[in-house]
Specification:
Elements lengths: L1 H16 L2 E5 L1 H6 L2 H38 L5 H26 L4 H28 L1 E6 L8 E3 L5 H8 L16 E3 L12
Parallel strand pairs: 1-2
Antiparallel strand pairs: 3-4
């Protein structure tokens, strides 16, 4: 039993060490896909239209409130209450519309899912295919957080993903693609992880 345990403890680290890893930069990949840029532009345009509509509603509410303040001392109590209720109703209506457009699960989120999900699915399917073909144990995304502090550029397969999708890098990449130089994250979110 001890012998089996010794073999297991000795061979397990070797099996883990033999695994292949790679990384991608999904921001870089998506920035080089024209469909993604068009979808983002369409989303931005729609959000700007909705924001303009909301601003007009809130300006109208502000105008009604200022008019009410000017006339309040002349109005009888029943008309004051009626005007106050009208203003509050318009405020609630505008806030509901704002939530409908920009709230969690709102129209903007639905539109984003409609436009972006097919593109993202294609990218993730390409990543999965590359991982299977090249026998990678893990492919990490280095674009998001500061948890990935050091990556050697020769393990970045972002260009392979773009090639598999039929796109070429278009100069939007701010990183140098020199395989001999390691890529380091410039910011570390956890100061304890910084080494002197």
């Amino acid at each position: 039993m001890k012998r089996l345990l010794f073999i297991f403890v000795f061979l397990l680290p070797m099996a883990v060490w033999a695994q292949k890893y790679a990384c991608v930069n999904t921001e870089y990949i998506l920035s080089n896909i024209p469909d993604y840029s068009r979808a983002q532009s369409q989303l931005d345009k729609q959000a700007a239209n909705w924001q303009k509509e909301l601003e007009q509603k809130f300006q109208e509410i502000d105008r009604l409130y200022k008019t009410y303040q000017q006339e309040a001392y002349l109005l009888p109590d029943n008309l004051k209450r009626k005007r106050e209720e009208e203003i509050k109703a318009k405020e609630n209506e505008a806030k509901e519309l704002q939530n409908k457009y920009f709230g969690p699960g709102g129209d903007l989120d639905k539109k984003r899912a409609e436009l972006m999900k097919p593109i993202q699915d294609r990218v993730y399917n390409a990543i999965e295919r590359i991982a299977n073909e090249k026998s990678y144990a893990f492919i990490l995304d280095k674009s998001g957080s500061a948890t990935l502090l050091y990556v050697n550029a020769k393990y970045d397969v972002s260009d392979l993903v773009l090639d598999m999708l039929g796109y070429k890098a278009g100069g939007n990449n701010n990183e140098e693609k020199d395989a001999s130089q390691p890529t380091r994250k410039k910011e570390v979110s956890n100061p304890e992880m910084r080494k002197p």
